[in-house]
């Protein structure tokens, strides 16, 4: 499983998340809106800018979904990344989300100066919470009534990972420390 830039022939796979409710359900369907946005952004920027981007999650030639990140400014001089993932239904529940998020964190720390990457999910999305924890993220807390979806307000959960918590291979830094000291 790898991440790669979005190619023009990937756009129909991305657009499925905007046009097929069953692909985005149960946690990412927010109704139909601007179904050509990714096509316009791809034509303009290739879906990667200084303020964020999208990468495809693929296994060989199979498209599994995408990861995305966006810049969050926390002060005049400081920013960090907020990231997310959307997987096609057939890719869910197989460890793809954990690995894709681990790879995106490694990519962002390798190619930008940020110290923090965060991710948010709905409080009822237990699979995503497990995936983030397996990828080394720390649960920070609940955001009350932060998402309106399917007729009601829903709580979210925020996770983060800091640069020093990630080993060069993308695994949690504590795992590499534990492994290197286990023979002592």
Write the layout of secondary structure elements.
Elements: E1 2-5, H1 11-19, H2 21-24, H3 37-45, E2 48-49, E3 52-59, E4 62-73, E5 79-87, H4 96-111, E6 116-122, H5 126-134, E7 138-149, E8 152-162, H6 173-181
Parallel strand pairs: 5-6
Antiparallel strand pairs: 1-3, 2-3, 3-4, 4-5, 6-8, 7-8
Helix pairs in contact: 4-5
What does this structure look like?
The protein is α+β, with helices and mostly antiparallel strands and 184 residues long. It has one domain (2-181): Aminopeptidase. Helices cover 30% and strands 35% of the residues. It is built from six helices and eight strands; from the N terminus they run E-H-H-H-E-E-E-E-H-E-H-E-E-H. Strands 1, 2, 3, 4, 5, 6, 7 and 8 form an eight-stranded mixed beta sheet that branches. Strand 2 (48-49) and strand 3 form a beta hairpin. Helix 4 (96-111) crosses helix 5. The longest helix is centred in the middle third of the chain and has 16 residues, at 96-111. The protein is globular, with a radius of gyration of 17 Å. It starts with a strand and ends with a helix.
């Amino acid at each position: 499983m790898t991440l790669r830039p979005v190619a023009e022939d990937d756009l129909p796979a991305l657009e499925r998340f905007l046009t097929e409710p069953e692909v985005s359900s149960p946690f990412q369907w927010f109704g139909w809106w601007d179904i050509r946005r990714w096509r316009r952004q791809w034509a303009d920027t290739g879906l990667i800018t200084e303020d964020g981007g999208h990468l495809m999650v693929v296994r060989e030639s199979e498209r599994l979904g995408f990861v995305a990140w966006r810049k969050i400014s926390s002060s005049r001089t400081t920013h960090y990344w907020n990231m997310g993932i959307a997987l096609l239904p057939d890719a869910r529940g197989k460890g793809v989300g954990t690995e894709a998020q681990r790879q995106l964190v490694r990519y962002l720390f390798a190619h930008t100066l940020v110290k923090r990457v965060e991710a948010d999910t709905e409080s009822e999305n237990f699979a995503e919470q497990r995936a983030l924890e397996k990828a080394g993220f720390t649960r920070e807390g609940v955001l009350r009534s932060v998402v309106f979806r399917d007729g009601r307000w829903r709580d979210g959960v925020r996770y983060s990972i800091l640069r020093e918590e990630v080993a060069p291979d993308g695994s949690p830094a504590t795992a590499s420390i534990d492994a290197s000291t286990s023979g002592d």
